[in-house]
């Protein structure tokens, strides 16, 4: 059966394209053309039944992804599913299961069953964990074992697979030559690089890229090309290793499209504000307009405990510059694993960033803000809470801080500007 991209290239508007167009308020032909060109992806495994298709790419609303996963002895599948539900309630567009420990197969299948959003994974995590259990060391993983895990996850219905295909020996040489501050901060990328050095072999995901594409084509899985050399501190942003990897990523994007496999590129990382626009433009140029899935980006290194804020700043500006997909960052980043509340908070922060960029990119997005402004003018608190990006928090703060006033805000009380001006002009609900 042809892939979503193959059908788009043949001129067919699929049910998934129609659904995306309806959700975005655009013409289905616009979506079909974007999928055919590779500037839009619709992650949707053909084996996945319980999914509401989401479009990611040029001309569409900026999307948000939340990450969960088993990481250690204290984690449970039930606990991770609770995080998934919190993320979905907070409005995430996609979920990634990044489990590295325990019953990884069970966790993935539970996540797939718990949400109708697209679900992504990073299969090398599981391949390395299984090799560690089988051989006592992840570096003893066999190439066939890694590809078996990739196919197992695709067969389960995973919609997009994140893989460090461009973390090559050539990029390692670039990093060594230019002496990075933080060599590799990518979990998957660093372990894969360790395997390459131990075995004195090229990255098998690069060496056997056609084999990977065959799996993606068989299940119509979207490939998310992850960057192992993403900068882990501001000092490494746009260094030789990162840029060299982008060059290789561009080569792989072209190869994936030739095989009619949908593909997006995953990006940095820690990026100073002055580099954000150049980073996005470089990806768009070198990777042929592929949708850009950015981790944050985090715009300063000094805010542990507040990195949901640093990432929201970076995400808004990166999306304004052209990135289309934001991987959330929680307040626990750099410190530990997030709990359910940090997951909710991280999703909301990323959604704020995405919407701020949408308003700058597409005038229609500001209609939501206009409705909120009208509700504020009318002192319609029920409507304001209904329109809030996080109604639960807005309602809780209103109840806690309103000082018993049912009309004015707690900040101004009886001196509420909307109320005073409305009374001055003789109009009960404010200025018309």
From TrEMBL:
GO terms for molecular function: 4 iron, 4 sulfur cluster binding; metal ion binding; phosphomethylpyrimidine synthase activity. InterPro entries: ThiC/Bza_core_dom, ThiC/BzaA/B. Keywords: 4Fe-4S, Iron, Iron-sulfur, Lyase, Metal-binding, S-adenosyl-L-methionine, Zinc. Its EC number is 4.1.99.17. One of its GO terms (biological process) is thiamine biosynthetic process. Pfam families: ThiC_Rad_SAM (PF01964). One of its GO terms (cellular component) is cytosol. It is an enzyme of class 4 (lyase). Its cofactor is [4Fe-4S] cluster. NCBIfam families: PRK13352.1, thiC. This is Phosphomethylpyrimidine synthase. It comes from Desulfofundulus australicus DSM 11792.
């Amino acid at each position: 059966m042809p892939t979503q991209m193959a059908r788009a290239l043949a001129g067919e508007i699929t049910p998934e394209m129609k659904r995306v167009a309806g959700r975005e308020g655009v013409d289905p032909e616009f979506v079909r053309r974007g999928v055919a060109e590779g500037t839009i992806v619709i992650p949707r495994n053909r084996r996945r039944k319980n999914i509401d298709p989401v479009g990611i790419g040029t001309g569409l609303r900026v999307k948000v992804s939340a990450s969960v996963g088993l990481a250690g002895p204290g984690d449970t599948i039930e606990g991770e599913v609770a995080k998934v539900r919190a993320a979905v309630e907070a409005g995430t567009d996609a979920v990634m299961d990044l489990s590295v420990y325990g019953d990884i197969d069970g966790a993935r299948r539970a996540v797939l069953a718990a949400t109708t959003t697209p679900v992504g994974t990073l299969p090398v995590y599981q391949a390395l964990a299984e090799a560690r259990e089988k051989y006592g060391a992840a570096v003893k993983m066999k190439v066939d074992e890694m590809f078996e895990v990739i196919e197992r996850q695709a067969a389960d219905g995973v919609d997009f697979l994140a893989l460090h295909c461009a973390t090559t020996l050539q990029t390692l040489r670039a990093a060594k030559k230019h002496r990075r501050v933080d060599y590799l901060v990518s979990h998957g990328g660093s372990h894969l690089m360790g395997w390459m050095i131990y075995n004195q072999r090229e990255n098998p995901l690069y060496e056997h890229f056609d084999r990977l594409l065959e799996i993606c084509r068989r299940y119509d899985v979207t490939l998310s090309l992850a960057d192992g050399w993403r900068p882990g501190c501001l000092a490494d942003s746009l260094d030789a290793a990162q840029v060299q990897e982008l060059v290789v990523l561009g080569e792989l994007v072209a190869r994936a499209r030739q095989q009619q496999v949908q593909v997006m590129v995953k990006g940095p990382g820690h990026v100073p504000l002055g580099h954000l626009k150049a980073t996005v433009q470089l990806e768009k140029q070198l990777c042929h307009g592929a949708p850009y899935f950015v981790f944050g980006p985090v715009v300063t290194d000094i805010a542990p405990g507040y990195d949901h804020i640093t990432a929201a700043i970076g995400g808004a500006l990166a999306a304004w510059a052209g990135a289309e997909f934001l991987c959330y960052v929680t307040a626990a980043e750099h410190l530990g694993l997030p709990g359910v509340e940090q997951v909710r908070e991280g999703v909301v922060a990323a959604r704020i960033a995405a919407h701020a960029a949408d308003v700058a990119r597409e005038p229609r997005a500001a209609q939501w803000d206009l409705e909120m402004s009208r509700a504020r003018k009318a002192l319609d608190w029920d409507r304001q809470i209904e329109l809030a990006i996080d109604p639960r928090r807005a309602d809780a703060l209103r109840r806690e801080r309103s000082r018993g006033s049912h009309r004015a805000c707690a900040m101004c009380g009886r001196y509420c500007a909307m109320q005073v001006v409305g009374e001055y002009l003789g109009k009960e609900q404010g200025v018309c």
